[in-house]
Amino acid sequence: MQKPIYILGIESSCDDTSASVIYNGKVLSNVIANQEVHSKYGGVVPELASRAHQQNILPVVQQALAQAKVTKNQLSAVAFTRGPGLMGSLLVGTSFAKSLALGLEIPLIDVNHMQAHILAHFIDDEDSKKPNFPFICLTISGGHTQIVKVTNHFEMKVLGETIDDAVGEAFDKSAKILGLPYPGGPLIDKYAQLGNPKAYKFTQPKVGDLDFSFSGLKTGILYFIQKKVRLNPDFIEENLNDICASIQYTIVEILMAKLKNAVKKTGIKQIAIAGGVSANSAIRERLQLAEKHFGWTTYIPKFEYTTDNAAMIAITGYLKYLNHTFSDVSVTAKARLKVIE
What we know:
Blueprint: E1 6-11, E2 17-23, E3 26-33, H1 46-68, E4 77-83, H2 87-104, E5 108-112, H3 113-119, E6 135-140, E7 145-152, E8 155-161, H4 167-177, H5 185-192, H6 215-231, H7 235-266, E9 270-274, H8 281-294, E10 297-299, H9 310-322
Parallel strand pairs: 1-4, 4-5, 6-9, 9-10
Antiparallel strand pairs: 1-2, 2-3, 6-7, 7-8
């Protein structure tokens, strides 16, 4: 019988403070404190984010332990996000995790945020199937867009990535152009479901087979909207659903085209998605259709494990714990951290 392993995960890479307790791979708690302060600025303000983390981290950890019905003395290890992310935010989580692990005299485990998004698929959940190795993972968020070949839990290779902006940024900036509040990606998804995805045509960028580019698309959308609004000041209001549907359709087409290229190049038909943008309904729908059309096996995470959350940090910590991969207290936060370091 496996001995009980309790891992506390701490996530503080951007503007969400999160703590989670995992017991032998199962999530007992996953507490997230959002920071509403950034909405008025149209984006995350790093200084405000780190201050809010300082206020939130202790109550969030206490709540995670209470929900899991676990005392701090039962913890086997503390896992935390080392990077990538906002330096000030990362430092709060890193410092707290180090102090707690030292005080409890238990192992400290540093976690790569991007690896954790992918490894969220290995949370022990009866409603979700776990990917078989090797698989391709499309990691899409506000800060990253990557196609990663995953050979095992800790052997990963980036096959393609964005050469400029991330897909989440493309959604949010497009929403800003339309006058929608931050974060705008979920709102585009909401309005797109009521519109015609082929109402307006936006040019798809020409880059490498497995790489992405979204800066040109954003510029194209901006010029298109400016031109239409000059002719009709009410253009956005009158056509919002169709505009959002057309933007979303274009972005999803780009993502799917790159995934098809990755399958063609690798021969791997096990396809997973991860990251905040994987909550998008159109991407989920297209992946499910791909199972029928292309014979792929697709893995779509639960909504609560798509955005930045500590459960994905805790499951990565758990897998590292089983592998006896621990960190020294000299480990430091790193704002720029690649999938493979």
